[in-house]
Each structure stands twice: as structure tokens, then as C-alpha cells.
């Protein structure tokens, strides 16, 4: 049997595929963060809590309204985005002219409050959420057993990431958005309602987090801390990719997922730290991140 | 006349108070429940443990020989340094006489050091490590509910005897996981089983697919989960997703609480074997106590840690009454001497050994199929009762220096 890094190649393929699946979550989450940072200059620390809310809205919908997974996939992002928009209008919007630190502290505080509320209501152990019937089961690929649901996660994330990138890079709306990022005053002077654009961008970023939350619900335990476990890694992804770079965060998300997957085979103990080691190296060599535009 | 009566009453109260002082310092018994109120273990211990301790005090009548008993509580956040500083503050400044619950081994050991130094009682329920009755044992320290040796002896024995000879471990990469794996390996090997390998995963960890695939590739019949809480839940959930169980391999959760099964749902958890120190639906006595607890906890049912906290606090109160003092050493002697029996139905055949281990019957349980469950929280079939002496580490093997050799 052929081996690579002392591992049979077949097993390695399996692990790389799994890495790609985790990378999909990193990509969708870091994409939302990058969008929000790019336009709002806010380091959205409540992103993890919003991801968790997405999963909970899916569960609440199923339990109290009989809304199935597919409905949740559409509904949860809208509900969580609406809550996000209220937060943006009432609180975040007051901080745009201040240092990043204020936005970070506010969103961090909000994350703690939101998690605290869910912990109080639902406890810490989590709640079961079944894989939708249409996506249950799996394929035997020879080198591994691939659950259909995981394949769906990668495809859905890729479509979402590419779609978002096209929206921002190739459409008129995206052009306004990018222009507003560069010089909001000038864009406003051209008759474009920048505050509304900012609010909607925040809503969209939050919706991405909630969407990832719904994707995650059948895989992970739906619990109040599911976001805080993930958010630190996602921040590292954004920093490595370059703050505010859309393509950077997508590519880095998938890449680091792969790297983490490899580490889990070669030296599992380091799996939770490898991303941060990369972050340190990248910050030393290229402080603006791999895809950043300079400091 | 009235004035005289009043003075008499005041004098009488002062007198009784003085009498009480002679026996119990500061004429008050204070028991601290130190637990995880916000983190990973807050469901299996947490608020439910405080409620259980309060129930013990109420059932005892709220007073020991006329001296009122008070429960105080705090969140140690699963951190050893926070736990030991709260313990110090409680003992030094707030006249706390004993500390109960103590989930998380690191926190329990930290408090054990302080209690030992001050000659105060600790009643460990939630922490798992056998270190508490070996290198870290104390004349005033007790380990009440379960430990890693009992879990391994119960579950691993049963699984190997059912034909699960070859094992692969997914182990949480910290002291507790290592200890649980080592204890389980010992039992597996003693029964003629074989260890195919192990992978240490970071703690906490949410995605287990990579580790499960490695376990699958090992070809072991049994995948042993030497972890706890959310890690165990995620591992079991994802093992089902990746067709591990359909592929002929079985999972053995070495530490599974009823709160974990509730979170997994019977659909996913069915058939799993585990060892527990308590099951609420075991007999009329356990049901009666658990329903009272449940009424205070929004309809949840107690874990073994909750029942163990009740049982340990109740026994402590009885020892206080018998010793007629709150001196730690004397109360500890009474705790060892008195029979252990309370209305929770915990601690069947319970006795306390020289190393501080409260030995009691454990249960090998199997998770019911969804169709067999008769209602909310009706999750286990008790397969076998494991006599305490078979479940726990033999006293002769204890490395505790209080054990006379």
C-alpha cells in the first residue's frame, strides 16, 4: 500500500476530505466576519453566539412549529439577522467612529449575555437535532465512508461562499459596498444610502453565521457554547487570511481545515493549536495576512 | 411582669446559644457546595447539586442538635486556583465546616489540599479520579459517588465478557482522560482483551470524525470513549453519522451521565452500556426521592452526582449530630462508624474505607430502545448490580498512606 507521511494514502484522502468539511464551516463563518469588518470596522465577537442562535432557531422551529430542516435553513438566518439588525441599529451604530476596541468589547459582552440566556434556558449538555431524512445515510467511497450530510455541508458552503464573492466583486451592489468601504463620505455624497447598506451588510454577515449554525446542528450537539468553542479558531482564520479580505477568508478557511485535518492524523495532540502556530508565523512574516492589502 | 419575662427569655436564649457554642463553633453549621455553575459540567452537577444539598438539610430538619444548618454555594468554573481560593475564604473567613460536590478532578484535588491542611471535611461527588483516595487521600476527605476504577471495572468487564476483546481509545487529552484510559486498559487486559491503540484528542473538541476514522481503521471491535460531557456526546453522535456502529464496531462510553443520554436522545444512544452509581427509576425509593428533586428542577431527573451530593451531605449531618462537635477529625470518625442509609436510595451497602472511599453498589446499565421507554427520562435498563467491593479498587492496592499495610 502506498504511504505518505507514514500514513496509507487511502486513509490520508479520507482525512483530507474531513478537513475540507471542517474548512467549510471556517470559511462560511470567517466570510461573515470579514464582510462585517470590511464595511463596519467592527470586530464582531458575537459571531459565535449568532452561529449558536442559528442552530437553536432551527431546533425551536422544529420543536414548536414543526418547521423541518429545509425551512430552518431559510428561516433561521432571517430570524437571527433580524435580531442582529436590531443590535446594529440600537448599539453598534454608535461605535463606528470610535476605536475597534469598543466594538470588540460590546460584541464580546453581547456574546456573553446571549450565551448566558441560552444556558439558563436550555442547560449546557445540548439538545439532539436529527439529520434530515433526505440526507441521511452515506456513500462508501472505498477509502472512507462519507455521510451524505457532510457532502451536503461542503457543497452548500462552497455555493454560499462563491455566491457571496460574486455578489461583492461582480455586481453593482457589490461595487457600492466596496466603494463605501473605501470612502463612505464620498459614496454618501453620490446619493447612496450608506447607513442602510451598513445595516444590511451586518444583517447579511450575521445571516451567514446563522446559516452555518443550522448546517452544524445535525452534526454537533446543539448547545449554548458551540459558538464560543469555534469562534477563536475562526478569528485566527480571518487574521491569517487578512482582515476584511473576502476571498482571503474563504480560501484560508478551507486551507486551514485541511491543515487541521492532517494534524489530527500526524500528531492529534496539536490539532487545536496548529492554526494558532500558523497565525503566529503569518503575522511575523506578513502582518496584514496572506491576502491582506498591507497595513 | 412582662419585662421580667422578656429578660428571662433573653437570658435563656443566651444560655442555650452558649451551650451550643461549646459544641459547634460559631453556633452555626455551614456547608459549602462548590461546583461548576456555568461550564461543561453544570448540568450533571451545578445547580442540581445545590438543590440536593438543601434537600438533605430540610430532610434532616434544618438543625443539628438545635444548631441551624446553612448551605452556601459558589462556582469554581472548573479551575483549580479558583476552587482553592474559595475554599480558603470559606474556611478562614466564613466559618464553613465542610465542602461538598466538587466536580472536576483538578478542582477537587485543590480543595482537598486546603481541607486537609485545615482539618475540615470534604465530600467529593462529581470528580472522577482515583487519585483522591490514593496519593491525595486525607483523614477528613471522602470520595462518595463513583471513580474511574469503578467505571472501568463495571463497563469494561461487561463489554469484554460480551466478546468485545479488542479496544481502541478516544481519550480526552488531560489528567482525567489519561486516568480513565489507564484504568480501562488494566481491566481489558486482565480479562484477556487487547489494546489496538489510542488517540488523544484536544479538550474540548467538537469534531471527532477524524479520530473516529482512525478508530475505524484500527479494526478494533470496541471504541472506548475515555472522555466526558460534550466530548462524549459529539463522539457518539458522529460515530452514528459515520456508520461506525452499522459497520460492526461498538462504542463504550466510559463515563456517561443520564444528562448526556438526555442530550443525545434515545434514537442515537440506544444499546450503549455504561456504569452508574445511581438511576432514578431503579426502585420505589429512588423514584420517590428523584421526583421530589425533579419538582425543584423543572422536571429534569437527577444524575448520580446529584443523588451522591444529597447522600454525602445527609451522612455528614448525621455524623455531626452523633459527634456533638464540628471538629473535622471527630466528625470524620463518626462518618466512618455510622451506617450509611438515606431516603434517596443512593449508597446501597455503603461503607467508608480508611482511604476515604465510600464503597457502594454500582449498576451496569444499558440505554433503552426508544420503543421501550415509557416516558420522559425513562432511559436505562439495569443489567446488573455490581457489588461495591467488586466495583472499586481493592483497599490493599491503595497508595493512600492512611491505609495500614
Notes on the structure:
The complex is a heterodimer of chains A (295) and B (405). By secondary structure, chain A is mainly alpha-helical. Chain A has a domain at 23-226. Chain A has 11 helices and 4 strands. A two-stranded antiparallel ribbon of chain A has the order 1-2. Chain A has a two-stranded antiparallel ribbon with strand order 3-4. In chain A, helix 2 (47-65) packs parallel to helix 4 (100-122). Chain A is globular. The relative contact order of chain A is 0.21. The model of chain A has no long low-confidence stretch (mean pLDDT 90). With 405 residues, chain B is of the alpha/beta class. Chain B contains 14 helices and 15 strands. In chain B, the strands form 4 sheets. Chain B has a 6-stranded mixed beta sheet, sandwiched between helices. A 4-stranded parallel beta sheet of chain B has the order 8-7-9-10, sandwiched between helices. In chain B, a hairpin with a 2-residue loop joins strand 2 (63-64) and strand 3.
How do the helices and strands line up, and which of them pair or pack?
The complex is a heterodimer of chains A (295) and B (405).
Chain A: E1 3-4, E2 7-8, H1 9-40, H2 47-65, H3 69-90, H4 100-122, E3 138-140, E4 145-147, H5 148-170, H6 172-182, H7 184-189, H8 194-216, H9 226-241, H10 246-266, H11 274-285
Antiparallel strand pairs in A: 1-2, 3-4
Chain B: H1 2-23, E1 29-35, H2 46-60, E2 63-64, E3 67-75, H3 80-93, E4 98-101, H4 105-118, E5 121-124, E6 141-143, H5 148-161, E7 166-172, H6 175-190, E8 194-201, H7 209-218, E9 222-226, H8 229-241, E10 250-253, H9 258-264, H10 266-269, E11 273-276, H11 284-296, H12 304-323, H13 328-337, E12 351-352, E13 358-359, E14 362-367, E15 380-386, H14 388-391
Parallel strand pairs in B: 1-3, 1-4, 4-5, 5-6, 7-8, 7-9, 9-10
Antiparallel strand pairs in B: 2-3, 11-14, 12-13, 14-15
Amino acid at each position: 500500500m502506498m504511504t505518505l507521511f507514514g500514513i496509507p494514502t487511502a486513509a490520508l484522502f479520507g482525512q483530507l476530505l474531513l478537513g475540507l468539511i471542517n474548512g467549510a464551516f471556517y470559511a462560511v463563518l470567517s466570510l461573515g466576519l470579514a464582510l462585517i469588518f470590511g464595511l463596519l470596522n467592527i470586530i464582531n465577537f458575537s459571531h459565535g453566539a449568532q452561529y449558536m442562535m442559528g442552530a437553536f432557531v432551527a431546533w425551536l422551529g422544529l420543536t414548536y412549529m414543526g418547521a423541518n430542516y429545509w425551512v430552518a435553513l431559510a428561516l433561521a438566518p432571517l430570524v437571527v439577522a433580524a435580531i442582529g439588525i436590531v443590535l446594529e441599529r440600537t448599539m453598534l451604530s454608535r461605535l463606528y467612529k470610535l476605536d475597534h476596541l469598543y466594538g470588540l468589547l460590546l460584541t464580546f459582552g453581547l456574546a456573553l449575555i446571549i450565551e448566558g440566556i441560552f444556558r439558563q434556558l436550555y442547560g449546557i449538555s445540548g439538545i439532539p437535532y436529527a439529520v434530515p431524512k433526505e440526507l441521511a445515510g452515506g456513500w462508501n467511497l472505498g477509502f472512507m465512508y462519507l455521510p451524505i450530510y457532510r457532502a451536503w455541508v461542503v457543497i452548500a458552503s462552497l455555493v454560499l461562499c462563491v455566491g457571496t464573492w460574486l455578489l461583492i466583486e461582480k455586481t453593482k451592489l457589490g461595487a457600492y459596498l466596496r466603494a463605501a468601504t473605501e470612502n463612505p463620505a464620498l459614496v454618501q455624497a453620490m446619493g447612496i444610502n450608506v447607513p442602510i447598506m451598513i445595516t444590511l451588510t451586518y444583517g447579511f454577515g450575521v445571516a451567514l453565521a446563522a446559516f452555518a449554525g443550522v448546517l452544524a446542528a445535525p452534526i454537533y450537539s446543539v448547545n449554548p457554547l458551540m459558538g464560543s468553542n469555534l469562534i477563536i479558531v475562526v478569528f485566527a482564520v480571518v487574521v491569517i487570511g487578512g482582515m476584511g479580505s473576502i476571498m482571503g477568508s474563504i480560501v484560508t478557511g478551507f486551507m486551514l481545515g485541511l491543515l487541521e485535518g492532517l494534524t489530527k492524523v500526524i500528531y492529534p495532540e496539536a490539532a487545536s493549536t496548529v492554526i494558532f502556530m500558523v497565525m503566529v508565523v503569518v503575522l511575523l512574516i506578513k502582518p496584514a495576512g496572506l491576502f491582506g492589502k498591507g497595513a | 411582669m412582662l419585662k421580667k419575662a422578656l429578660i428571662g427569655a433573653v437570658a435563656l436564649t443566651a444560655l442555650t446559644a452558649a451551650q451550643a457554642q461549646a459544641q459547634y463553633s460559631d453556633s452555626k453549621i455551614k456547608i459549602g457546595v462548590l461546583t461548576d455553575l456555568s461550564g461543561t459540567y453544570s448540568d450533571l452537577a451545578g445547580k442540581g447539586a445545590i438543590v440536593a444539598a438543601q434537600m438533605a438539610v430540610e430532610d434532616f430538619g434544618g438543625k443539628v442538635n438545635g444548631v441551624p444548618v446553612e448551605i452556601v454555594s459558589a462556582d469554581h468554573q472548573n479551575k483549580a486556583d479558583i476552587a482553592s481560593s474559595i475554599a480558603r475564604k470559606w474556611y478562614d473567613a466564613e466559618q464553613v465546616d465542610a465542602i461538598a460536590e466538587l466536580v472536576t478532578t483538578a478542582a477537587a484535588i485543590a480543595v482537598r489540599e486546603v481541607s486537609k491542611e485545615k482539618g475540615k471535611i470534604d465530600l467529593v461527588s462529581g470528580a472522577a479520579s482515583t487519585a483522591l483516595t490514593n496519593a491525595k487521600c486525607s483523614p477528613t476527605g471522602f470520595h462518595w459517588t463513583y471513580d474511574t476504577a469503578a467505571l472501568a471495572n463495571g463497563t469494561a468487564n461487561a463489554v469484554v465478557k460480551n466478546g468485545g476483546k479488542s479496544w481502541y481509545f478516544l481519550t480526552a487529552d488531560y489528567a482525567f482522560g489519561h486516568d480513565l484510559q489507564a484504568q480501562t486498559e488494566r481491566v481489558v487486559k486482565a480479562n484477556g482483551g487487547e489494546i489496538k491503540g489510542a488517540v488523544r484528542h484536544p479538550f474540548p473538541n467538537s469534531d471527532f470524525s477524524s479520530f473516529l476514522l482512525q478508530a475505524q481503521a484500527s479494526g478494533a471491535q470496541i471504541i472506548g470513549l475515555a472522555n466526558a460531557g460534550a466530548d462524549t456526546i459529539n463522539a457518539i453522535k458522529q460515530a452514528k453519522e459515520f456508520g461506525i456502529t452499522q459497520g460492526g464496531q461498538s462504542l463504550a462510553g466510559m463515563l456517561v451521565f443520564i444528562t448526556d443520554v438526555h442530550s443525545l436522545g434515545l434514537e442515537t444512544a440506544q444499546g450503549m452500556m455504561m456504569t452508574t452509581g445511581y438511576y432514578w427509576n431503579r426502585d420505589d425509593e429512588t423514584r420517590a426521592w428523584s421526583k421530589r428533586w425533579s419538582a425543584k428542577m423543572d422536571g429534569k431527573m437527577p444524575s448520580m452526582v446529584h443523588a451522591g451530593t444529597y447522600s454525602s451531605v445527609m451522612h455528614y449531618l448525621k455524623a455531626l449530630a452523633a459527634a456533638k462537635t464540628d471538629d473535622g477529625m471527630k466528625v470524620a470518625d463518626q462518618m466512618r462508624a455510622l451506617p450509611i442509609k438515606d431516603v434517596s436510595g443512593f449508597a446501597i451497602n455503603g461503607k467508608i474505607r480508611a482511604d476515604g472511599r465510600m464503597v457502594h453498589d454500582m449498576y451496569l446499565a444499558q440505554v433503552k430502545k426508544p420503543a421501550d421507554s415509557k416516558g420522559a427520562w425513562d432511559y436505562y435498563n439495569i443489567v446488573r448490580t455490581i457489588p461495591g467491593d467488586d466495583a472499586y479498587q481493592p483497599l490493599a492496592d491503595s497508595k493512600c498512606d492512611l491505609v495500614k499495610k
